[in-house]
Amino acid sequence: MTDYQGTYEIDPTHTRIGFIARHAMVTKVRGNFDEWTADVQADGKNSSIKVVIKADSINTGNADRDGHTKGEDFFDVAKYPEITFVATDADVENGKLTGDLTIKDVTKPVTLDVEIFGTEEDPFGNVRTGFEATTKINRKDFHVDFQAPLNSGGVLVSEQITIEVEGSAIKK
């Protein structure tokens, strides 16, 4: 077992907070948020983790789609500028991180599956820990309920959204 206790800074240049949605039920659209902060204090079961994402930093690689997702149909960033996650139970040794996810005006508990890839000292003397975390949510549970029905009976944007975080944390 590796000792992951301590204060960490999430390296923004080597970390991605993103999502995957199905489009027209036949393909995937991936996106990420370019602006966020993360405070991590790892102390076993007493760990504290808080992530604050600037909702209008969404980036799907398409300006028109990004503009639509910032509007009232999706994130309504003028009214709800932040998405937050606050951990309530960190059991990363067993691959689980549970916390409260807030999107728009809704807060719900979610559990992320976590994989730690190890710790290594980089050439600059930083002790880095690599990780991935994923979960799936129903966007409608968070009042992101834009619907555009398809002739097949499906919808333009899937209700199930995969959230994925992959990156590197530097021990302070």
Automatic annotation (TrEMBL):
Q: Which InterPro entries match?
A: Lipid/polyisoprenoid-bd_YceI, TTHA0802/YceI-like_sf
Q: Which residues form the Lipid/polyisoprenoid-binding YceI-like domain?
A: 7-170
Q: Return the Gene3D superfamilies for the record.
A: Lipid/polyisoprenoid-binding, YceI-like (2.40.128.110)
Could you tell me which SUPFAM superfamilies the record lists for this protein?
A: YceI-like
**Source species, domain of life:** Bacteria
Q: Which family does it belong to?
A: Belongs to the UPF0312 family.
Protein name in the entry: Polyisoprenoid-binding protein
Source organism = Corynebacterium doosanense CAU 212 = DSM 45436
